[in-house]
Amino acid sequence: MKTRSPYLNYITDYMITRHYLLRTVNAYLSWIANFIHFHNKCHPSLMGDNEVVAFLDHLVLQK
Fold it and tell me: pTM for this one?
């Protein structure tokens, strides 16, 4: 279940070593990837609360 993103691979490895179900891992990765793509592929470590609020507002108002 490797991706081209080292960050997403790290998240995957982290969750698998902690025995998350694969279904949960896939769901989390999907949400994280959507968040990253919404913000034009900006790394999550460079974002904060404002970006989270903008993403959630988008989900509520647009989706």
Answer: 0.85
